[in-house]
Amino acid sequence: MSDDDGRPPSPEPRRGPASDEGVLTRLRTAEEGPLLFVREVLTSALAVLAVGLFLFAVSGVWPPMVAVESGSMEPHMHKGDLVFITGPDRYAPDASVEGTAVVTAETGAEVDYRKFGGPGSVIVYDDPGSAGPPIIHRAMFWVDEGENWYDRANPEYMSADNCRELANCPAEYAGFITKGDNNPRYDQVSGIADPVRPEWVQGVARVRIPLLGWVRLTLANSMATTTPVAPVSIDSADSVESVDVATEDVTTAEPTVANVATTAPLPVETSKTAVHGDAVAA
């Protein structure tokens, strides 16, 4: 615009206190104050996210880690261990059961395939008919539908003289017979689970990290814990009088006692015949 038109020059547009680029620069270069705190939080969150995405890409299952809750797999897995698992059909060895990545202990002994101190794969499975968290035990052998598997089973891991006396024999459907390394009986004999269908298998154990699972177990236990409420003494409880309008009889209501909230404990090993290999997703 010319100077001789009689109008003053237009003012420069006002800028905000800081552009987006300026905020990012200050966030990146801050050495103290709130921006430094925000940067550290964001950096930590992005690092955790990156590790999680990497583990998911490798494992093909989410969550890719479980925490061991009991001693049923000792001495090869211990309570508090964190176990990395992969998808039930990922990285399948040649000796695995068709359609899965699971090598049974029976086959593993023949081809020298060993995991966690014993032949065969250790799997995480969830029987929809059983309560509680998923189980982490060893896959012992595969049975076909209607199979009499009594002669294939190890007599030390059952208490029966024939198939008729053996639970889940003959097999109602095809699946895995499983067992905890520290348990005296097969899961299907002791009532822990029915034969494990392939679709019940959530993952195959690959790597054990000692003790790290205690973080997850402690967190799960604290979330399940409620503060106990002291019961009200019957002697000191207030009674409530009510009047029957029809008869004008005065009755005294029974005093009430407050319910006591209990703490939900982690699974406790009470005997070898009742040890479950529970696994909590981490």
TrEMBL record:
The chain crosses the membrane at residues 41-62. It is found in: Membrane. InterPro entries: LexA/Signal_pep-like_sf (IPR036286), Peptidase_S26 (IPR019533), Peptidase_S26B (IPR001733). CDD domains: S26_SPase_I. It is an enzyme of class 3 (hydrolase). Signal peptide: none annotated. GO terms for biological process: signal peptide processing. GO terms for molecular function: serine-type endopeptidase activity; signal peptidase activity. This is Signal peptidase I. It comes from Haloferax gibbonsii.
